[in-house]
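Chapter summary example.
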Amino acid sequence: MRAHDEAMTVCRRTASPSILACLLLVLALAALGGCTGSGGTSPDSRPLRTDVEWQLVSIEHSGRPPVTVADPSRYTVRFGSDGSVAARVDCNRCGGRYRVDGSALTVNPALACTRAACPLPALGDQFTAALTSVGSYIQRESELELVYAGGTLRFRAAL
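The structure predicted for these 159 residues follows.
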């Protein structure tokens, strides 16, 4: 609003202000006012794509080598446009709710999951713990990074 007031003051002080020029100046400043850079995803990121199955490629823990997922189709996540989240966690299925606010992403920690005994080795506990502690995301064309306090979950879009 301050930029708008300054623009109007400049227009009033001009000896013979052009109403069109002043109007254009005010509109340009108003348009730039929405470009503060706060909120939203990072510059190379896009809004969260919903109704896409994302397959887990790796779990990257801070300060440790990444864990590459041998079969990404066994660890998936899908964010619904209605705020629902569905995950495949090895031989189990989970469901719950999520929320996006700019680049912040929160998955409700109360995911409802089946409890089948999956064959070892399994990444199920690591995956669900990381998924329910996600704080932000970075979305690219066919990649999704979910960032949590202990590292990053890296996904690719299923074909």
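To summarize the output: The helical segments are 2-13, 19-33, 124-131.
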